[in-house]
Amino acid sequence: MGHLGRPAPSGRAARWAWAYWAACAGFALVLATTTALGPHRVWGTCAAAGYATAAVLTLRDARSWNRSGALAALAGAVLVPLAVLVASGDAQSEVGVVERSGALLLDSGSPYLPDPARTVEYNPYLPGMALFGVPRALFGAGPLTDARVWFGLAFLVCMFFAARRPAGAALKASAAGPVSTVALLSGFPAVALPLAVGGVDLPVVGLMCLGLALAGRGGSGVAAGVAMGAAAALKWTAWPLLPVGLVLLAVTAGRRTTLRAAATALSVSALAVIPVALADPHAFVEHVVLFPLGEGGVRSPAASPLPGHLLAAHVPGGSTLATAALATAALGVAVSLLIRPPGTVRAAADRLAVGLGIAICLIPATRFGYLVLPLVLAAWFRLPSSPTSSPTGPSRADHADPVRSVYSVAPPTGHG
């Protein structure tokens, strides 16, 4: 299949590209006409026009996934609705929660209200997320201090560096550069919608992809540890990254590098979380532990009809059953890491995506929107940005497994 800016071998790939953009336009139009949420209606209207334009440009261009189509989709699905919503101040409630938490962090040292009484007063995120609200607290309301701008910027920067190839890696003839790859991903509806309306999960998944990419490159392990620790300081959903990323490092770089990365990741996350937890332990537990589990003073609004929520809501003892199923699934993923550790970034991302997908389906308080995490993890390392070999040259495993990860490296010759 042809990729961004590359001639397609036939019109078949271009027809697939047209069908993809047309389907995206249809989804956006349906959302715009059926949703009761104002920000989502704005996004659907703008995105439908952008995706339709991308489909038309694909028909007029013999190349599949042409750059002009991707940019039209990006403009219509991200840039225009984001500008409109930031100018009007219309956003999902999560944006206000993060911006308030930034002000609280500066004022009291804790981003959590001591006695929350309403749903909007709860902050279910770990302390690192409050940093995205600090610009507004410091400089006041404005387009550049909107938390969504910083969510999106963090996501795009992380994905850009995750897409960069290690020095010396050979480049496939069909591979797109980092900018084109990030643009293609950002135009995907599951990513474009939260970019515009309030994507608290996007910086999380961006750091997760960056952490895996850095782990696959080997190196000292410090950079991978920083990325993984930063992700773990934002949301609980990033914590499964640590065992998966560390197992990948153990396979690709050896024990010393893995221990160094683990120490770095735990230090970064502890530095962000522990001081805040000690500042007000009761508020920390109420907001970050009990509320996401549906056991806080106010019921969590995260109530999408997935198995965990349905069990908790309709079956006696359902919360316990859902928690037990979640623990069993986590144990199964952990055992799989020991029995068959992932040796490439793509394999690690797939394992993490499966684990997160199961967890999102089984936790009692859940939302369909959380599925952006496994979706991005599963899709990102399949986008057209793969080098054909590792920095140290192709290994025997590379020849045995031609579908290698974006940042596979040759097996280490020793620890460290």
TrEMBL record:
Low complexity bias (residue ranges): 386-395
* Residues annotated as transmembrane: 16-36, 42-59, 71-89, 147-163, 175-197, 236-254, 261-279, 321-340, 352-381
Give the location in the cell.
Cell membrane
User: What molecular function terms (GO) are annotated for this protein?
Assistant: hexosyltransferase activity
Q: Which UniProt keywords apply?
A: Cell membrane, Membrane, Transferase, Transmembrane, Transmembrane helix
Question: Its domain of life?
Answer: Bacteria
Stretches for region Disordered: 386-416
- State the GO CC annotations: plasma membrane
Q: Which InterPro entries match?
A: GT87
Instruction: List, alphabetically, the Pfam families matched.
Output: GT87 (PF09594)
Give the bilayer topology. Multi-pass membrane protein
User: In which family does this protein belong, per the annotation?
Assistant: Belongs to the glycosyltransferase 87 family.
By what name is this protein known?
A: Integral membrane protein
What lineage is this protein's organism placed in? Answer: Bacteria, Bacillati, Actinomycetota, Actinomycetes, Kitasatosporales
